Amino acid sequence: MNKNILIISAAVGVLVLAGIWFWSKQSSAPSQNQQPSSQEPSDNTASINADLDALDLGDVDKEFQGIDADLNTL
Amino acid sequence: MKNIIGAAILALLMAVSVSAHTEGDVQGIVKDAVQNVRKEATQLRKEAVDQFKAKREEAKVQLKAKTEELKANVKTKREEVKSRIEAKKVELKEKLKAVRDEKKKQIVERVYNSVNELNERMTDHLTKTLNQIQEVLDRVESRADKAEANDLDVASVRTAITAAESAIASSRSAVEAQAGKTYSFTVTTEEKLRSDVGTARQALHTDLVAVRETVKAARDAVKSAAVVLGQVPKVDEAEVDSED
Question: Who's near B120: CB < 8 A, 6+ residues apart?
Answer without folding.
Answer: B78, B179
